[in-house]
Amino acid sequence: MGAHILYFLVYPGFLFTAIVGGLIAGVDRKLTAAVQFRKGPPVLQPFYDFFKLLLVKETILPASGSKITFLLAPVFALSGISIAAVLVMMPLLGINTGFEGDIIVIFYLLTIPSLTYIIGAMASGNPLASVGASREMKLIIGYELTFLLVIAAIIYKSGAETSLYQIIQTQQAGSVHIGSISGVLLFIAGMFCTQAKLGLVPFDMGEAETEIAEGAFIEYSGSAFALIKLSKYMLFFTLPALIILLFMGGVQLTGIHVLWAILKLVAVVLLITLIRNTNPRLKINQAMRFFFVWMNALVVIAIVLSYFGY
Amino acid sequence: MGFKDFCFKKSLWLFHYGGASCNNCDIEILDCLTPRYDVERFGMKLVGSPRHADVLLVNGSINKRDKDRLLEVYDQMAKPVKVVAVGACGCTGGIFAEGIPFAGPVDKIIPVDAYIPGCPPKPEAIIAGIVKLIETI
Ligand code: SF4
């Protein structure tokens, strides 16, 4: 029992994900600066931001709107992403407890942060926040179907297995999923879903800083905003980890393989950062069409291809 | 210097309030964010919502209409907050000081922590002012 709590709170759960996620967010800002020929903030910047918000700043509650919901939403976002992080990390790092990490559970847990952001925004009673929330909601409707189809295709390719351990096993025994044509197509769709889930450009219309001033998060300040930031950092580690798990055959933590594991993570994060720095923000209708028509078509083609063994 | 102060110092988020300015100061403030000066090096960034901001940059003269809005923005910010008056207009009223709608320089309305003189101040001067502001924390 004690070991399980340790799994959840320290390694590979909350603390580990938060620290690595914060570092990834820092590297992301550094890379963004490099793309724009700037020097950029220090890599530890996300931690400074987090502790400043948590310890120094005052938390303001909205005068109109539901205060309790407003405050609870970040807590739920953080708990949702923590559970998802543990369940993704344990199979990835080869820690075996009785629970078979199930991909359907992960799918539901990963929607919790976005949903709670929407609820929190609605509870704040700010008109710009509700614009952000409604965009976020439409975006979820757009990408969730694609994400589900990607997961279905992965399950099919792994021989009808929904357990994350089995998905890794299949890939380590045979070839990794990204090594086939259908796998590459699925990987592209999966990366765009990741981008949308992280709320990064080109899918950041829900928190568009320039038009609706951070949209869904506009009313948050102080420690509530710190928790939101933390959940974003954790998402920034968990989703690339899930991509590695689903497409790249997971990681092995022995000897030289550690280097491979880090390289895989860096590659996925680099791809996300480059997509975000080389694209403009889409309008919400463009984003929905992008997922509904193009990405779904891509995934369906991939499923058909994998049926014929490509 | 405690851990709290250290984090606060390292991550100042700016909210830019332009009063009745001639817009030159606004442009110079934006200059600080360009690759050449890049204040993001110090962990600063421009945020869109006063709720997130730690520093209120006020430039331009404050006239009777601006006064209410400035107070409103100041009240909406999560404390602790630092206020910086940018430009001659922000510090003293500058060339607008004798105008009829003028409602007093910024420090008559809200407490100001740092003054950056100049009309408009160069980006170097703004960065120097911000460094002085950091030293007061
Ligand atoms: S200080 Fe000078 S440059 Fe700045 S707003 Fe006033 S008149 Fe314009």
TrEMBL record, chain A:
<keyword id="KW-0472">Membrane</keyword>
<dbReference type="InterPro" id="IPR018086">
    <property type="entry name" value="NADH_UbQ_OxRdtase_su1_CS"/>
</dbReference>
<protein>
    <submittedName>
        <fullName>NADH-quinone oxidoreductase subunit H</fullName>
        <ecNumber>1.6.5.11</ecNumber>
    </submittedName>
</protein>
<feature type="transmembrane region" description="Helical">
    <location>
        <begin position="257"/>
        <end position="275"/>
    </location>
</feature>
<dbReference type="GO" id="GO:0005886">
    <property type="term" value="C:plasma membrane"/>
</dbReference>
<dbReference type="InterPro" id="IPR052561">
    <property type="entry name" value="ComplexI_Subunit1"/>
</dbReference>
<feature type="transmembrane region" description="Helical">
    <location>
        <begin position="233"/>
        <end position="251"/>
    </location>
</feature>
<keyword id="KW-1133">Transmembrane helix</keyword>
<keyword id="KW-0812">Transmembrane</keyword>
<keyword id="KW-0560">Oxidoreductase</keyword>
<feature type="transmembrane region" description="Helical">
    <location>
        <begin position="287"/>
        <end position="308"/>
    </location>
</feature>
<feature type="transmembrane region" description="Helical">
    <location>
        <begin position="137"/>
        <end position="156"/>
    </location>
</feature>
<dbReference type="GO" id="GO:0016491">
    <property type="term" value="F:oxidoreductase activity"/>
</dbReference>
<dbReference type="Pfam" id="PF00146">
    <property type="entry name" value="NADHdh"/>
</dbReference>
<dbReference type="InterPro" id="IPR001694">
    <property type="entry name" value="NADH_UbQ_OxRdtase_su1/FPO"/>
</dbReference>
<feature type="transmembrane region" description="Helical">
    <location>
        <begin position="70"/>
        <end position="93"/>
    </location>
</feature>
<feature type="transmembrane region" description="Helical">
    <location>
        <begin position="6"/>
        <end position="27"/>
    </location>
</feature>
<feature type="transmembrane region" description="Helical">
    <location>
        <begin position="176"/>
        <end position="193"/>
    </location>
</feature>
<feature type="transmembrane region" description="Helical">
    <location>
        <begin position="105"/>
        <end position="125"/>
    </location>
</feature>
From TrEMBL, chain B:
<dbReference type="Pfam" id="PF01058">
    <property type="entry name" value="Oxidored_q6"/>
</dbReference>
<dbReference type="InterPro" id="IPR052375">
    <property type="entry name" value="Complex_I_20kDa-like"/>
</dbReference>
<dbReference type="GO" id="GO:0046872">
    <property type="term" value="F:metal ion binding"/>
</dbReference>
<keyword id="KW-0408">Iron</keyword>
<dbReference type="GO" id="GO:0051539">
    <property type="term" value="F:4 iron, 4 sulfur cluster binding"/>
</dbReference>
<dbReference type="InterPro" id="IPR006137">
    <property type="entry name" value="NADH_UbQ_OxRdtase-like_20kDa"/>
</dbReference>
<feature type="domain" description="NADH:ubiquinone oxidoreductase-like 20kDa subunit">
    <location>
        <begin position="22"/>
        <end position="133"/>
    </location>
</feature>
<keyword id="KW-0479">Metal-binding</keyword>
<keyword id="KW-0004">4Fe-4S</keyword>
<comment type="similarity">
    <text>Belongs to the complex I 20 kDa subunit family.</text>
</comment>
<keyword id="KW-0411">Iron-sulfur</keyword>
<protein>
    <submittedName>
        <fullName>Hydrogenase-3 component G</fullName>
    </submittedName>
</protein>
